[in-house]
Automatic annotation (TrEMBL):
Protein name (Swiss-Prot/TrEMBL): Cation transporter
Species, as recorded: Silvibacterium dinghuense
Family: Belongs to the cation diffusion facilitator (CDF) transporter (TC 2.A.4) family. SLC30A subfamily.
InterPro entries the record matches: Cation_efflux, Cation_efflux_CTD, Cation_efflux_CTD_sf, Cation_efflux_TM, Cation_efflux_TMD_sf, CDF/SLC30A
Positions of the Cation efflux protein cytoplasmic domain: 210-284
Amino acid sequence: MAHVHGPTSGRKMWLSLAVTLSFCTFEAIAGKASHSLALVSDAGHNLSDALALGLAAYALHSMSRPAKGRHTYGFQRISALTALFNASALIVIAILIGLGALERFQHPQPLAGNIMIWVALISVLMNTLIAVALAGDAKNSLNSRAAMIHMAGDAISAAGVVAAGIVVRYTGWGYADAVVSLLIAAFIAWSGVGVLREAGDILMEKAPRHLDPAELAATIREIPSVCNVHDLHVWTVGEGRSFLSCHVAFAAGTSLDACSSVINNIAGQLRKSFSIDHATIQPEIVGACEMASLNAFYCAPEPKPTQAHHHGCTHHH
């Protein structure tokens, strides 16, 4: 089922963005004052979260625009593009933090553990509250879920800074700051790669992770009067919107009315079992219920360039 995000989601995003940017500035200043690379690193992570929130808010606004002109799908995929940009920024930030941590190992500086602890505690509280506020929308929105994961992850990173501050305060071991910074960098990079992979899957029009093309085809074949299915494609257009197209072969002698009835049955089954609301199904009348090869299932190009494109079932127009 397609999900519609109203002004409530947008207001939460913009409010969360304002709070995050304000705290990010405060945390960076505190990090410089306490000579804590971990605090500065966490401020950088907060900045990436602010970027994620801003892009998420922009995507929510853009996705509400209707399809028009050459934008036949509307603006649903803006969320994938913003996720791609956000993931790239995360990886760059992780690299910069990691380089800073390595330099700190070589040139340690005296740290103010108390400042680290209190500022990081505020960060834990702020990020946790924002993550909880976004949790409701995250159930139905990949865009909101990604933003929520960012904020929850930053709460975990800030908790790491608290741990480093405690170690510095009570043991004087200054390397704890650099160690936590490396862990934060690794976490940011891991999060960024995950978002980058998911955005790439959407842009490459891979089948959604929760939909198995073979299972879809098997479900269609089980419907009475269906001979076979091939040229099957399933992809994600936007949040909560999976599209499918396929060719369905019927036995010879199947009437047009019967084909129409079965196609409606297929569409209803796809909607009920797989939440696919938009399915384009092309009927074919054939004399034999068999497929030529596995490649025919996806209609992949044949190995011989001179051979005509063949689906394994004869087309009748």
